[in-house]
Amino acid sequence: MSLEPIEPRHALELYLTDRENNVSEATLYSHRSRLGHFIRWCEDKQITNLNELTGRQLHEFRLHRREEGDLAPTTEKTQMDTLRVFIRWLESIDGVETDLHTKVLSPTLSDGDNVRDERLEPERAKEILNHLQRFSYASRPHVVLTLMWHTMMRVGEIRAIDCDDYDPDEQFLRVAHRPDSETSLKNQSRGERYVALTDEVAELLNDWIANCRPDVTDDHGRKPLIATEQGRPNTTTLRRDCYRYTRPCEISGECPHDKEIEECDATEHNKASQCPSSLSPHALRRGGITHALSEGWPMKAVGNRANVTESVLSTHYDSRSEKEKMEQRRDYLDDI
């Protein structure tokens, strides 16, 4: 096989462009982020042509990521699995040697290792949302974090909603897959659904639309429900809202990590994710799902609202103890 020279960063852009019509924006964002570590490592190692990439170098990168990132086994596996997909794609365009992807190794997880437990606890969610209600009412972060917690939506789904998808009279949101106008859903048409809202959340949306939402359209002439002055925000903007307001210092003015707030890098613009206590949008989603299950919601109802199968809910989202599950089942004893 005759290989064609290709520079690492150019290869990544070609890969993402090739996949953008087949996967959601959230998946593209994740792959760009994970593979970015590999591209920067190649540049540090002065690897300018991926034709020369070897299995030994791939192993060296794996060790580098494990040590530099202090990665948990689940995170290491996710990153290396994504790299394997990328290397296999490179094989298809004659960018690396045939079967090089088989030399990308990742951890074998034992039972329970693949279950994440990072989530926003109900008490902390209440504290954050109360703070936003009082000091930043109907701001974009207030609306975004409220929807993450109460609707259990993915961040890409929240971004995709238009003003026309909101029914203020019947108080619901429509989640729609619109790949032709750059708002695809993770589960594509299987992710489409209607999500009911409480009176309080509907009132917040009404005030956001009436008083705070920028009167803008996106590049396709649609009116995004969550908007910035530039139009429809990207998911990075919404993630930053989440990271910022889940920092303890943002709410309490105190740091649980014994840092001087004025000197902490995590207080700088776009660096909130560096705070050890800040949480991702997925942690809010997981927290909202776990809270609903703990409050006695039927698993099928939670799954339909959050667009998650019951098996995935049970494995990855249900953080109740076995005793807590037993006590909730006790409520049905009177019906026997």
UniProtKB/TrEMBL annotation:
SUPFAM superfamilies: DNA breaking-rejoining enzymes
Region annotation (Disordered) ranges: 317-336
Pfam families hit by this protein: Phage_int_SAM_1, Phage_integrase
Segments traversing the membrane: none
Tagged with keyword Secreted: no
Database matches in InterPro entries: CB, DNA_brk_join_enz, Integrase-like_cat_sf, Integrase_catalytic, Integrase_recombinase_N, Integrase_SAM-like_N, Tyrosine_recombinase_XerCD
GO molecular-function terms, A-Z: DNA binding
GO biological process: DNA integration; DNA recombination
Top-level taxon of the source organism: Archaea
Domain Core-binding (CB), residue spans: 6-91
Name this polypeptide is given: Site-specific integrase
